[in-house]
Amino acid sequence: MTIKDRQHAENFPVALRVLPRRHREHLEAVYGFARTVDDLGDESLGDRLANLDAFATDLNLIWAGRRPSTPVLVRLAGTVRDCQLPAEPFLRLVEANRQDQRVKSYRTFDDLRAYCTLSADPVGRIVLDVFSVTTQARVAWSDAICTALQLVEHWQDVAEDRRNGRVYLPAEDLARFGVTPADLDKSSTPDAVRKLLAFETDRAESLLREGAPLVKSLRGWARLSVGGFLAGGLATVDALRRCDYDVLARTPKPSKRDVLRHLIAEVAR
Predict the structure, then answer these.
(1) Are 211 and 145 in contact (CB under 8 A)?
(2) CA dihedral defined by 156, 158, 161, 162, rounded to 10 degrees?
(3) Rounded to whole angstroms, how far apart are CA atoms 237 and 252?
(4) CA 157, CA 269: separation in Å to the nearest integer?
(5) Could you say which DSSP state residue 226 is in?
(6) How confident is the model at residue 210, as a pLDDT?
(7) DSSP code, position 167
(8) Which of 47, 52, 187, 266 is least enclosed by beta carbons within 10 angstroms?
(9) How many CB atoms lie within 10 A of CB 184?
């Protein structure tokens, strides 16, 4: 299964579109892989676990020095070779989608963050490797940003996730705010759900701020690229607050103006 370049571009951070061709093509290969894995876990027909297993088998051929058969992996193989990328982050992304087939809700926030170490953090680590700027401190900052990006995406998509049988809002937090899963089926967001989402959005913003020193630690195109991710997360926080957390009526979308505003602020620090 592959993704269309047009669909990919819709989710491609605006800052990355101005990168030199060599960086842009490598990052497009990585995001093409990530989108394909997500599509296999969310939309593929038949046994999704079996589909993911088959994809992982094909993926592992890259590090065995053999040519994979899936087009998106053929493209990825060149990036892995040129940037000397390890297999582990890619395999964690596959495992995240396996987990999605088995786990439909999370008891605690710590449980949800552990899921993000599979579903989100590997992308940031791969990006650091693509730019050859990986250090221990930068990995920690990157993990904070990537986890936050995953969280705000979940808070945007509460209604869609619920329709797909998933609730990413931690059960302990639902109970704390007096929210039941049935409240997530409504067409307008109840006050208790809005208060819960305000709490969770504040948590995500705190993680974005925790990871923000990563941008200042970088230079050149790496700084612009990572700044784009951070700006996108902060703009999504703005969007959630602007709609007063009414995520059941519509999916809040960050504005390009907010993304650009945050990008300029973060890169200029």
Answers:
(1) yes
(2) -160
(3) 9
(4) 31
(5) H
(6) 98
(7) B
(8) 187
(9) 20
Whether the CB-CB separation of 31 and 8 falls below 8 Å is answered with yes
Chain CA centroid to CA 208, Å: 13
Where helices occur in the chain by DSSP H, the ranges are 5-10, 21-42, 48-60, 71-83, 88-102, 109-119, 121-130, 136-156, 158-163, 171-176, 191-211, 213-217, 220-242, 256-268
Instruction: Show the tokens assigned to 68.
Output: 């994979």
Residue 160 has pLDDT above 90, yes or no: yes
CA distance 188 to 70: 42
Among the ranges 22-31, 196-205, 253-262, which has the highest mean pLDDT value? 196-205
For the chain, the farthest-separated pair of C-alpha atoms sits apart, in whole angstroms, at 55
| b/e per residue 239-252 (b: at least 16 CB within 10 A) | bbeebebbbbeeeb
Structure tokens at 186: 């409504």
Question: What span, in angstroms and rounded, lies between the C-alpha atoms of 104 and 70?
Answer: 28
Q: How far apart are CA 45 and CA 65, in angstroms?
A: 30
Single-letter residue type at 227: G
Question: What b/e string do you get for 196-233 counting C-beta neighbours within 10 Å, with b at 16 or more?
Answer: bbbebbebbbebbebbbebbeebeebbbbbbbbbbbbb
Angle at which helices 21-42 and 121-130 cross, to 10°? 160
Instruction: Give residue-wise pLDDT tens across range 216-262.
Output: 999 999 999 999 999 999 999 999 999 999 999 999 999 999 999 99
| Residue type (1 letter), 82 | D
Q: Which two tokens stand for residue 180?
A: 């039941």
Residue pair 153/247 in contact (Cβ under 8 Å)? The answer is no
Residue 38: CB partners within 8 Å, gap ≥ 6? Answer: 97
